[in-house]
Amino acid sequence: MHELVLSGGxxxxxxxxxxxxADIAVSQGRIAAIxxxxxxxxxxxxxxxxxxxxxxxxxxxxxxxxxADRMQAFDGVTTSLELELGVWPVARWYDEQVDAGxxxxxxxxxxxxxxxxxxxxxxxxxxxxxxxxxxMQDRRWADEVASPAETADIVARARAGLDQGGLGIGFPNAxxxxxxxxxxxxxxSLAASTDAPTFTHIAYMSNVDPLSSVEAYTRLIGxxxxxxxxMHICHFNSTSLQDVERAAELVRNAQAQGLKxxxxxxxxGTGSTVVGAVFxxxxxxxxxxxxxxxxxxSLASGHRFADREELLAAQDEDPGALVLWHFLDTAANxxxxxxxxxxxxFPGGAIASDAVPWLLPDGSTYEGDAWPLPEDAVSHxxxxxxxxxxxxxWVRERQAISLVEGLRKCSLIPAQLxxxxxxxxxxxxRLQVGCDADIVCFDFDRLTDRADFRNPxxxxxxxxxxxxxxxxxxxxxxxxxxxxxxxPVRRPSAA
Length: 495
Fold this sequence. Notes:
Layout: E1 2-12, E2 19-27, E3 30-35, E4 41-46, E5 51-54, E6 56-58, H1 66-73, E7 77-87, H2 90-100, E8 105-111, H3 112-120, H4 129-134, H5 140-143, H6 148-163, E9 169-172, H7 181-193, E10 198-201, H8 213-227, E11 231-233, H9 236-240, H10 244-256, E12 261-265, E13 270-274, H11 278-281, H12 285-289, E14 296-298, H13 308-317, E15 322-326, H14 334-344, E16 350-351, H15 382-397, H16 403-418, E17 439-442, E18 463-468, E19 471-475, E20 478-479
Parallel strand pairs: 1-4, 1-5, 6-7, 7-8, 8-9, 9-10, 10-11, 11-12, 12-16
Antiparallel strand pairs: 1-2, 2-3, 5-17, 13-15, 14-15, 17-18, 18-19, 19-20
Helix pairs in contact: 3-6, 6-7, 7-8, 8-10, 15-16
């Protein structure tokens, strides 16, 4: 007697390529059997006409709370990871998630930038994108090379984070451009010694030399070769800007030589970050990025900045405030749409949202329990619709890649990026006997994102059932309000 049977769906396993109608039996949080007519069960859910696939794994999600989990559940996500920024101390963060109770599976890397803030300043900051922004009020950690003693402290803190179960090392290098390469290379060697990936926001973002995106990618590839580290590139689309063709050529060449360099991208031409980011204050920002200051928009108010002086004033007032940055005009510019395609469709690349927290009109982060989310809560629409947007536009409508390949980019490839040092990921991103019962069932013909920049808090449609560890989070298209089945994803070295 199985606990649950999903009956009659189109079962797709992106690892084996299986694609056919079958039942899936679930017991004790794992897939117990796959086949036809699997016999009696305590509960049977008919999924006739639906695609049954591994739940999506988001490598790059900054929300990390119940409200963010719920919105991502409707986007097909079953595992939400904070890997670019990471957290520190790692053990404390995992304990806090257990206490909070999470809807989705969760995990984090050890946060280099937070270790750097702690080692180089007296600031106490939370492990969040806003916390990093607020720490920019004392910019020594961002602008200066660490002393030998400080470097040793930073490396020790990162090592402790890995020992506590961190999923790798997060390197938001662009937010600490003063960091020396000796420090970063030591940390990459540490990651290589433990088979832990690094997750990098490249050091520079610019279409022109010096300090161009191409220079930053060349540096990152050099670190992969000289240290043996797995260097994963976050948001390949936004950091490449208009040089993504050359960036993609460099990455392909590095991979052909056997270097561990991987990429992720989200299907939008607009990014989001803190207004205090150093690249906004560069006097040559328009020339270097190919955008004007009015491409930068306050997330909370929708106000677009008129000039550098207004942006600098906003940095002084609240450097942790979130903004949108419209770096590509994909609605009106065909060339920009082609550039986005290069990053989104990069062979072997993952889809990852870079989802940011939900804000209220006063700029505070919403972490409440209301569903639907408050009408005035705002975020980037990628926080709601990344995976459904990708599958709708690139797979169903444009048929740029097959459904099996699209699902690989959303589930299997993210799992494979982590499984060398986190063996538990071998049970995710796949629909096979013994794998975790993290499963999404969706109506492929109706699957769509609904969020846009005017209405970002509209949940995606088409996901009819979502299971996390065999427990229903979405049932018949509706949220199960009291569901808290999320479990930690953690390296086995955790204490």
